[in-house]
Amino acid sequence: MAAAAVEPRVVVVGAGPAGSRCVEALVKAGIRPLVIDESARSGGQIYRRQPDNFTRSAEQLYGSEAAKATRLHKSFDGLQGRFDYWPESLIWNLAGNRIFVVRGAQQCSVEFSSLVICSGATDRLLPVPGWNYSGCYSLGGAQIALKAQACAIGAEVVFMGTGPLLYLVAAQYAKAGARVAGVLDTSPFYRRVAALPDLLANPRALYHGLGLTASLYLKGVPVYSGVEPLAIEGDAAAGVSAVRFRDGRGREKQLHCDAVAMGYHLRPETQLADLARCQFDFDASTRQWLPRIDRDGRSTVADIYLAGDGARIRGADAAEASGELAALALLADRGQAVDSQRVARLQQQLGQLERFARGLAKAFPWPHQLAAQLADATVLCRCEVVTVGEMRSTIALTGASEANRAKAFSRVGMGRCQGRYCANAGAEVIAAATDGDICSAGRLRAQAPVKPLPLALVEVAPEDWLEVSAEGVDPVLKPAEAGL
Amino acid sequence: MKQIASDVVIVGGGIMGSSAALFLRQRGLSVTLLERDLIGQHASGTNFGNVRRQGRPLYQLPLANRASAIWRRAKELLDTDVEYIQGGHMRVCYRDRSEMVERMESYARDAKELGLELELLSAPAIHKRFPFLGPEVLAGSYSALDGHANPRLVSPAFARAAQRLGARIEENTRIILVEKVGEDFQVLSEAGTVYTAPNVLITTGAWGNELASQFRETAPLTSFGPNMSVTEPVPYCIKPSVGVFTTEEKETVYFRQIERGNVIIGGSTRAPGFPNTCRTHVRPQNTLSQLQQIRRLAPGLGQLRLIRVWSGTEGYLPDWQPIMGPSAVAAGLYYAFGFSGAGFQIGPGVGETMAELIASGQTSIDLEPYRPSRFSPEVG
Amino acid sequence: MSKRFVRLGETRRPEVQLYIDGEPAVALQGDTLLVALLQHSNRLRTSEFGDAERAGFCLMGACQDCWVRTEEGARLRACSTTVAENMRIVTTQLEISWPQQQ
């Protein structure tokens, strides 16, 4: 086996918009990166592809973003053979410059020279009584059901939460012929007006967002702003039957449904950055902890770069720009020449999209006061089934005032999802219960494995996974040979 | 400068320090317990949670028995549930190390004299009774009166119980200097508070030398982190805590199931500890070797998934025994640290013994094997 | 048992036969296991802590709420597994099955 195949590699994690553009820039510069992605096919969640035997057009799948999705897929597919590709593979831990990858029950470790983490985001969730019933899904999940499987999550769906995705998915459902029982936004309408100056940084997206809302009104879908979610009604066996809420004027209402899609904007998937010991800072505008990056995506750890929504929630366009920018930073750090005009243009584009993202955070704020006020009986941690009341009494008994300490005593965040869906609200509950501010409630430290790891692992050599030609692989091709 | 006086200052709020605080208060002494981070946050809260006596050196059994009695009344003593399950403790050996059977037999004979009853089991009986054991298991030694508990809960529970009896407990208080001035010790915190007491107990685990060295009683202490993992929950069906008796470090794995269903796995290979950063990371390679070994011990666990790993910062001494007892240099100064990865079960016994020693000047427990000066013949 | 997911298109795909808790069921080629199961049932599993039946949550492999198993004991995350002919899925709680001794 050619020794070259297991030399330290430039590794890109994730093949969504950020990862795909990062790979493209690296290949253009003559590098043969190793791409590790959890999905079977590239595109990430936003441009997720349907199975091969599905027939819907890109327009049906991605609407106004169809051209972008198609370009991204074509770019990635067109480069096949110029990078090594491990789909359906997860980096479950890392140590020093070595990553540990699991695919099915096989595990393999590889040394990296540089690592670009484009790990994407998941929905940020606010617990509500009943959200543990079957029929409750994350907004992203509801969208995947439609996009990748041509299914609605139920016969009658309520969309609840806040953020641009709330209106997008509801409109996609309505357009695809699903019954949308209502859209419930916790953000009051005036917030959106106040955020207009920032939102104008991306007029196309703003215009598109307004169009979505209009399309819902035209279809007769009830849309409520400034709501307070009260409960998801139903029972343990049959699941969801209705959503109860207070509307913007304080009137209690109920919408019957058999499914609820919920999301309060997004949170970055930062486990790998955390395990790599990157530093994090508290971001007051979104009340989340974010890995520290410079404007090009360098983390605080040498050779580790962060791009896309996994670093900052800035959306798919920014993910593409930041993925390319991180690749260019990596190349510059390796001493390769990069097009400084291109770098400047990407930085400028990213700056504009960041302003738009700030506008979205203002228009659709995380309703932290609702998290702080959750009723004691509400399940806070869906995995371990720990209620808000149990968390509060644990805090009262033990004096725990920090997220990891509260986790140690209460198990909130200790389950299979590792706090992905309870940590944001959990921190608010801690802060409210201790009179501390949200920042001092801290953040849950990532603990390996990034996702559940089979005990029956079989170790394999990286050569077994690398698709290599007979003469072996030169991990760094000269730019001229790459022919780009 | 702020000054706080008490009969005893305890530096280090792990299981040794927090249990000593409770037992000192029970004896009527005023106590100040100072912890650099949070009570029980380091080795005491991150270990496997084994409440096992067997496998300890025979001379340690009186201390382990004393602790065992405390574990059995922990719920009443602490007025809270620390998830102590007296489900038994099983030590097994593999077919390819059959010489270990004889060692288990002789240990069982000697331990019985010292009050520890062990039941010896061999194949096929052991497999019939404990069907989760793998075919490589040849024989085992079962202690019915041992078990396991939740280490995250134990030290804070002792500290709260001590606090209810009037102990003063200060977390996030790092001690930088201990000096004897006249009859009293002056214990200085980073924040500038001086705690005075005629007695000081140092229970600072892997950080033991920071203060011991101020009395020229530096111990050859090194630091390692345990290799811990937990699976997703599955229906509760494994009562005992089970471990492998072997001379090969990588084979030394152990597991226990908690009532909620998760299986906790420990052992195989330790990682180097980093007391300076207060954080010890699990090495992925060690997780892999642990998984390989645990499937030999209990192949059925191979169907499960790990959902979390962790480690902590433990202090080790070359003879695997703690520094425990009075200082050879300063009267009124006591140590109990460096429990070498085996302090959890004996912890409450150590606390009670140190409280007895400090309050009465003597203890029935023979402390000679743990003598602080045993590594420095020039002192004492 | 009522189904949970509603197909809105892409229904002209070849059928795939599977078994859910011993009962034969039909899915379509390209379905994830989660979709295949929720075409026949309103649940995938029971929460270990008894609060409710569960039917998945995030559909993107993050929440780990959709683990089911095969009759042979293999564990499958339904949202990231493609349904295959003659899969035999069990949605009841896992019992650890101990190996047969020599």
What is the residue-averaged pLDDT of chain B? 96
Summed up, the helix count of chain B is 10
Q: What distance lies between the first and last C-alpha atoms of chain C, to the nearest angstrom?
A: 42 Å
Reported by name, the CATH topology of chain C is: Ubiquitin-like (UB roll)
Specify Rg of chain C, calculated over alpha carbons.
14 Å
How are strands sequenced across the largest beta sheet of chain B? 6-7-5-16-17-18-15-20
Number of helices of chain C: 1
CATH superfamily of the largest domain in chain B: FAD/NAD(P)-binding domain
* Overall geometry of chain B: globular
Question: What attributes characterize this protein structure?
Answer:
heterotrimer; A: 484 residues; alpha/beta; FAD/NAD(P)-binding domain; Arc Repressor Mutant, subunit A; 3 domains; 8-stranded mixed β-sheet; 5-stranded parallel β-sheet; 35% helix; disordered N terminus; disordered C terminus; C: 102 residues; mainly beta; Ubiquitin-like (UB roll); 5-stranded mixed β-sheet; two-stranded antiparallel sheet; 1 helix; 8 strands; globular
Would you write up a description of this structure?
The complex is a heterotrimer of chains A (484), B (380) and C (102). Chain A is of the alpha/beta class and 484 residues long. Chain A has three domains: 3-122 and 268-361 and 460-471, FAD/NAD(P)-binding domain (3-Layer(bba) Sandwich); 125-264, FAD/NAD(P)-binding domain (3-Layer(bba) Sandwich); 368-440, BFD-like [2Fe-2S]-binding domain (Arc Repressor Mutant, subunit A, Orthogonal Bundle). In chain A, strands 1, 2, 3, 4, 5, 6, 20 and 24 form an eight-stranded mixed sheet that branches. Chain B has helices at 15-26, 43-46, 61-72, 74-78, 99-113, 125-129, 151-164, 208-212, 284-297, 347-360, and strands at 3-5, 8-11, 31-34, 50-51, 89-94, 119-122, 137-143, 147-148, 168-170, 175-181, 184-189, 194-197, 199-202, 222-225, 228-231, 241-244, 253-257, 263-267, 271-272, 305-310, 314-316, 323-326, 333-337. Chain B is α/β, with parallel strands linked by helices and 380 residues long. The mean pLDDT of chain B is 96. An eight-stranded mixed sheet of chain B has the order 6-7-5-16-17-18-15-20, with helices on both faces. A six-stranded mixed sheet of chain B has the order 9-3-2-13-23-22. Chain B has a four-stranded mixed sheet with strand order 1-12-11-10, with no helix packed on it. Chain B has ten helices and 23 strands. The longest helix of chain B is centred in the first third of the chain and has 15 residues, at 99-113. In chain B, helix 1 (15-26) packs parallel to helix 7. The N and C termini of chain C lie far apart (42 Å). Classes of the chains: A alpha/beta (484), B alpha/beta (380), C mainly beta (102). Strand 23 (453-454) of chain A pairs antiparallel with strand 20 (305-310) of chain B, so a sheet runs across the interface.
